[in-house]
Amino acid sequence: RNGMGLRPLGTSAAEFEQDLLSNLYYRRGTTVESASTQDAYETLALTVRDRLAERRVRTAAAQYAANPRWVYYLSAEYLLGKQLEQNMLYSGTDRIARIALRQLGLDPDEVTALDLEPGLGNGGLGRLAACLLDAMATLDIPAVGYGIRYDFGIFKQDFQDGRQIERPDDWAFQGNPWEFPAPDDQQTVFFYGHTEKDAAGRTLWIPGEVVFAEPSHMLVPGHGTDTVNIVRLWRARGSHSSFDLSRFSAGQYAEAVDEAVHAENISKVLYPDDSTESGRELRLKQQYFLVSSSLRDIIRRFRLRNSDWTDFPKKTVIQLNDTHPTLAIPELMRLLVDEEGLSWDLAWAITKQTFAYTCHTLLPEALETWPVHMFERLLPRHIEIVYAINEIFLTEVRNRFPADLDRVRRMSIIQEEPERRVRMANLAVVGTQAVNGVAELHSRLLADITLRDFAELWPEKFHNVTNGISPRRFVKMANPALSDLITEGLGGDAWITDLDRLAGLEPLAEDASFRLRWREVKQANKVRLGLGDPASLTDVMIKRFHEYKRQQLKLLHIITQYHRIKQNPGQTFVPRTVLFAGKAAPAYHAAKHIIRLINAVAATIDADPAVSPYLKVVFPANYNVTLSSLIIPAADLSEQISLAGKEASGTGNMKLALNGALTVGTLDGANIEIRDRVGADNFFLFGLDTPAALELRNGGTYSPRAYYEQDGELRRALDAILDGKFAGVGREVADSLLGWDEYLTLADYRTYVDAQDDVDAAWQDTESWTRRSILNTARSGFFSADRTVRDYASEIWHVTPVKVTR
Ligand code: 26Q
């Protein structure tokens, strides 16, 4: 019996089978004979989930007893990936579950196929949040993730005539067996209204709308440890008072619930924007909804073991995942000053010590700002607090830099021209004890350019924490065949939680029989993926569509290769399968034109028997964590070709290198750190570096026409598009490249094509390519999210693990 006095759940297939039957009967109310596949799936999920419940209970008890410093990760997005396979792996039930299902006459693959991916994020930032939660649990760090339980996640992508179309992602329509509702911890969130001063001079916020925040959580198990943390997701519910009884009594039944329905819109849908576009009030409402409910929950948890507010920062660090949760700063001030009666100065000291901010961009247009008129209408008390913070802050700036009015204007939390807006990044820097970028180059550019004024004022506040990825999700689970080979090569599987051990593979790069097996695994992964000839070089570009990422540059290379093949009949070429995957924000027209052109080029090549033996372009729809896990293990070549100085870090680059792909890339984001580690010989470098790109861009001398006129192959590629050779599609793309192209695509074209020629040459030496592939894996252990979390823990959070014992 365990500590709860319960019979421990069995670890044999027979016991698992019994539990399946029992859960099917008592929790689904059915039997094997009449169960649908959905019944079987839900029951399997519950049975697996139960195997983590006891660990969760012990984790909560151990963490409570330790009263430690907690990490609270606030993020508007989480891309957790499918839960079933992960929870089977982490609970060690993968094998017995499959046996038990078969015993009951069920097909395990058919049942597990019903597991859906919660797409509660857009891309890199959301997946990073999930990888960090995984690593925190694996390292026994007491942590809770807070987020929003969107009813509709990131849209589903389809193609119609090569065009992206979007469909809603009602991922939780059938219910979500991984979720634990926690109605007792419901919170109340206020919006709108006005402020008043009471007799004692204290400010009161009289809100105009009341919304309930209903929490549920999902389990975040650690690997190879008993820790099971949680991610708590909030869902908006109309309050009882939003039920309009007078309308109801007057027979206006639908109108009576208008407000409640309206309130529930807050958590209805994830905004599908990547870096650009903002300004929607509902988005701001989502942000405050997340922040307000999470802070109240954090304070509730603090009070379980503590009573003195000065202890709050000792027991709490709140990491802001980009500026999306930055309203937490004025919200904590409001709670401490207005509701708890603390002095402004004490509240400000506590607040600043509590928060840390991670920035994920360099693009100035991606820095979040909100119109003051919208902000003050929605959050009338918070705007007063922001003004007060700004005043004190600007006084400090004026004292440090007397008579530097321009600096004061630049640093102000309020932008004045052309319209008054709240600058969330400025607020986030002012209200936190640490600011970090997500790769070395990015952190340097933040301090030197984007946030330079702030770094001059507070140099010690600025840090780098290079991103990392979960080796469990992206190696062990995504690539079981390679994982088995690595485990065999290293004589154990300790690498899964100690990724630096991959270095032990280096000598095996010289072992011809190991290389052969390495190739066999890659080959098998290509067969599993089932796109393109497994013997061909699999060249992948998988990421959100954005002009700065430059899918259009890859496309120019493809068209060039197409022309070379057509022009040289009878010559042989290195066969390639180029695989694109990714979504474009629905309103991002330039990105959608690129998608459409890729599909048109793919069709043209497919229809041309002279070319298709050597070149194939595939573009599976609806890229997500699940699809990435199939593609990454099959990749030979990783395309990381953003304009230098634009990609904060990238994390797909790390996943691909760890799975043995070689990178063709620019000196951007974490590419630089990957190249430093895997070695320049094992990385195909090309393109302008950041200083050269800045100079060309800002010098006003970039002339795309000049490249077009000087380079025959480039001219041919662009002319083909302009002449309508690809079903008449894509002229917008060519026009934009030849017009004012922010991303200097044509400037990098020639070095890129040359680098691709080097790739072809390298591919022809199979043994040498395999050696380099192994070295990419062996030398990429640094990019484990475990290392990232250790960096946060020691440099920013100052937290220590709490071991969960029996
Ligand atoms: C903002 C305002 C309104 C609506 C949406 C948004 C919004 C949503 C998502 C803005 C940005 C994002 C996502 C950004 C993102 O994914 N950034 C990536 O973060 C990765 C993890 O650090 C980096 O590796 C990538 O370089 C960076 O682009």
UniProtKB/TrEMBL annotation:
Keyword Glycosyltransferase: yes
Residues recorded with modification N6-(pyridoxal phosphate)lysine: 655
Record-linked SUPFAM superfamilies: UDP-Glycosyltransferase/glycogen phosphorylase (SSF53756)
Presence of keyword Zinc: no
EC number(s) stated in the UniProt entry for this protein: 2.4.1.1
Record-level GO BP terms: glycogen catabolic process
Cofactor or coenzyme needed: pyridoxal 5'-phosphate
Top class in the EC scheme: transferase
Chemical reaction(s) catalysed: [(1->4)-alpha-D-glucosyl](n) + phosphate = [(1->4)-alpha-D-glucosyl](n-1) + alpha-D-glucose 1-phosphate
Keywords: Carbohydrate metabolism, Glycosyltransferase, Pyridoxal phosphate, Transferase
Family annotation (PROSITE patterns): PHOSPHORYLASE
Entry's Gene Ontology molecular function annotations: glycogen phosphorylase activity; pyridoxal phosphate binding
NCBIfam families cross-referenced by the UniProt entry: P_ylase
Role noted for this protein: Phosphorylase is an important allosteric enzyme in carbohydrate metabolism. Enzymes from different sources differ in their regulatory mechanisms and in their natural substrates. However, all known phosphorylases share catalytic and structural properties.
Family from the record: Belongs to the glycogen phosphorylase family.
PANTHER family noted in UniProt: GLYCOGEN PHOSPHORYLASE, GLYCOGEN PHOSPHORYLASE, LIVER FORM
Protein name, UniProt field: Alpha-1,4 glucan phosphorylase
